[in-house]
Amino acid sequence: MSGRRVAVHAHPQLPGLALVDAHFVEQHFPKHSHDGYSIGVVRSGVNAFWHRGGQQHAIAGSLCIVNPGEVHTGDTVTPQGWSYFNLLVPELLLQTSRATLDLPAQTLHFGQSVVADAQAATALLVLGQAMLAKDSPLAVEQHWLELCGVLLSRHVSERAALAPVSRMPRQVARAREVLDADLLGQRSLSELAALCHVSPFHLVRSFSAHVGLPPHAYQLQKRLEQAKARVQQGEALASIAAATGFADQAHMSRHFQRQWGVPPGQFAPLRSQPQNRKNVQYR
């Protein structure tokens, strides 16, 4: 893993947003999704990832964009690995910024996994450098809105990102409702399938086909997102682990490493610093 470097940065003017500044050499992110948007610019190398049923390759200077809830992976394909600035953007922040820019109200769904747009890439790089340099709130917010202006005016698609629950098979919608309502539940697959009136095999196959993850992975994903949100609020890590269904803090940390490439402490607390949280790097 020589050369691996990951640091997370934030700014109080952009609540909930996290900038991941990373260089990965031997990294594999398994299938997962995010509650918000993942918007990155590749600075060197190639970011390979599976998304929307196919393998994608983002080269240096291009953007890699994943909408909320979309399942994807992440891999290295060259010995040199890849480096990027990647923004984890809450849906509310992007919607608020759209309104600030006076752009038309619409579903903010990006239609392409990999985007070649030099102006957008430059805008993201400028924002990332400003956050790393702990620039003033005025400068950081201006750079963020400039990035939003380019992205939202050029790359938003009118097509909905995911099929609504109403279009899912009834048993899949029911299983998701049960899992969402009780993330800490310890139901077996057989018990969940019985609630949905299907066989365990049929539930796994149908759920995976429509949600993108099997039920256990979906539940873990939701627990991780809930844990990250609580970390961002500054809660104690051990308490968060217990409250979100992990055996202990070490168990939670291992899953954070798999999901985001960093331990949970990198996200805590995102809003407590005057301008930008401390620059802690993991190699």
From TrEMBL:
This is AraC family transcriptional regulator. InterPro entries: AraC-bd, AraC_XylS_family_regulators, Homeodomain-like_sf, HTH-like, HTH_AraC. It comes from Rhodoferax aquaticus. Pfam families: AraC_binding, HTH_18. Residues 173-270 form the HTH araC/xylS-type domain. SUPFAM superfamilies: Homeodomain-like, Regulatory protein AraC. One of its GO terms (molecular function) is DNA-binding transcription factor activity. Residues 263-283 are annotated as: Disordered. Keywords: DNA-binding, Transcription, Transcription regulation. Residues 272-283 have a biased composition (Polar residues). It comes from the Bacteria.
